Amino acid sequence: MISYSNRIRAVSLAGLCLFPLLLGSVQAQSTTSDDGLPPYEDELLRLVSIMGSLEFLHPLCGRQPRGVWRDQMANLLEAEEPVPARQARIMATYNKAFALLEQVYNTCTPAAQAILLRYETEAIELTRIMATKYRPVQPVPTESPEKGASEEAAAIAEPAQ
Predict the structure, then answer these.
(1) Per-residue pLDDT at 29
(2) Is the dihedral of CA 57, 26, 75, 103 positive or negative?
(3) Which of 47, 87, 113, 147 has its CA 20 to 30 A from that of 72?
């Protein structure tokens, strides 16, 4: 039986899986640095590192089968559409995090479980921050005023007494 806290954590991590869709729409609007990187690059690389770690730790600790976070990484790369050098940097960050934990842990120890919990919590918070800080601004559609629209607007703005 899955505990309540594990279900909440799973739902929160599912929200993390939706984040690449946000990044794909943000990147086109917010590339501001001289090197062409989006302003959220540091946060993204930290998130990618956590995803690599989760790809190793979740199966080790019996949380999810292998491949779940690798698939999310593929979704993120697809949404980001990075240039080859940036894609290589993102992939290297993911693989390095995976390999580092693979060298240290061969069973799910209390320390591995503590890292897993810490990384899940950090990923949720980092995703929340990025979604808030870099959310794309939706343009307000400008409609041409129709005949009588200004009268309706005046009636809404100034209710009859």
Answers:
(1) 43
(2) negative
(3) 113
Q: Tokens in use for 29?
A: 């609007």
Q: What is the DSSP letter of 138?
A: P
Q: Residue 5: its pLDDT value, please?
A: 54
| Per-residue pLDDT reduced to its tens digit, 26-77 | 444 455 566 788 999 999 999 999 999 999 999 999 998 899 999 999 999 9
What is the Cα–Cα distance from 1 to 14, expressed in whole angstroms? 19
Q: Which helix (H) or strand (E) holds 40?
A: none
The one-letter code for the residue type at 97 is A
Which sign does the torsion angle of CA 114, 120, 121, 123 carry? positive
Beta strands in the chain (DSSP E): none
Question: Position of tokens 């199966």?
Answer: 59
Structure tokens at 103: 């060298």
6-21 average pLDDT score = 50
- Give yes or no for a contact between 78 and 20, defined as CB atoms under 8 angstroms apart: yes
Structure token digits, residue 81: 């559409």
Q: What are the structure tokens assigned to 105, written together? A: 């842990």
